[in-house]
Amino acid sequence: MFRKLHEPGAQALTLTIDGVPVRAESGETVAAVLLRQQTAASRTTPVNESPRAPYCMMGVCFDCLAIVDGVASTQTCLVTVREGMRVERQFGKRSVLP
C-alpha cells in the first residue's frame, strides 16, 4: 500500500520484523517501515485480537504498539530505526512474566 520515497544520500540499514530482515533508511520511524510491509498491522487488541496498524503517526492513538528490542508496548511512530533493531508484532494481551 505504501512505498518509500528515497532521500538522496540517505544511509540504508537493516532491521528485522518478526525475524525477517527489512531494509530501511536512517531517519524513518519503525511505524513507517511497518506500513510498507505485506501485513501492516503492528499488534492485535487484547480483548478481541483485532488487528491494528499505525494510524496517527504522532503518538496519540497507540495503534502502532509493538515489541522493539525486547520492550513491549513501544510506540513505533516515535522510534527512529537503527541498524540491527529487532521488531516483533504484539499479539493479544501483554505478558507480565517472561
What does this structure look like?
With 98 residues, the protein is mainly beta. The protein is built from one helix and seven strands, in the order E-E-H-E-E-E-E-E. The strands form two sheets. A five-stranded mixed sheet has the order 2-1-7-5-6. Strands 3-4 form a two-stranded antiparallel sheet. Strand 3 and strand 4 (51-52) form a beta hairpin. The model has no long low-confidence stretch (mean pLDDT 89).
In short:
Helix content is 6%, strand content 29%. With 98 residues, the chain is mainly beta. The protein has a five-stranded mixed beta sheet.
The level of helicity is: under 10%
Number of helices: 1
Uncertain parts: none
According to DSSP, the number of beta strands is: 7
Describe the SSE topology.
Layout: E1 12-17, E2 20-25, H1 30-35, E3 43-44, E4 51-52, E5 65-68, E6 71-75, E7 86-88
Parallel strand pairs: 1-7
Antiparallel strand pairs: 1-2, 3-4, 5-6, 5-7
Name some characteristics of this structure:
98 residues; two-stranded antiparallel sheet; 1 helix; 6% helix
